[in-house]
Amino acid sequence: MVGILDRLEAAGRVSRDRDPRDRRAYLVRITAAGRRTFERCLPRQRQATARCWVRLSAADLDKLRDLLRKALHTWRPRYTGEVRAHG
Question: What pTM does this model have?
Fold first, then answer.
């Protein structure tokens, strides 16, 4: 993760600051350049994702959504809206 953040920060796509609440962590924020890159890549990502699911039936997709919701619910109580990366 640190290597990915290093490259994104070097490219100006994210900024990284120390978390004032936890000296071991960083707050990572997307920059304007990162937002533009994200918006440019999003349609291609959606097309690729759609190709992954094309062979799944409606029932399979419903089950997949349910499983992903369960996984997200398990993770979400700790999610505060900010991405914190420990350094």
Answer: 0.59
As for how many domains the chain has, the answer is: 1
**Rounded (10°) CA dihedral 38, 3, 68, 56:** 70
CATH number of the domain within which 78 lies: 1.10.10.10
Q: How far is 39 from 32, CA to CA, in rounded Å?
A: 11
The string over 34-53, giving b where at least 16 C-beta atoms fall within 10 Å of a residue's C-beta and e elsewhere, is beebeeeeeeeeeeeeeeee
The answer to whether 85 touches 25, Cβ cutoff 8 Å, is yes
Q: And the tokens for 18?
A: 């120390």
Q: Which domain, by its residues, includes 78?
A: 2-86
Flag whether pLDDT at 49 surpasses 80.
yes
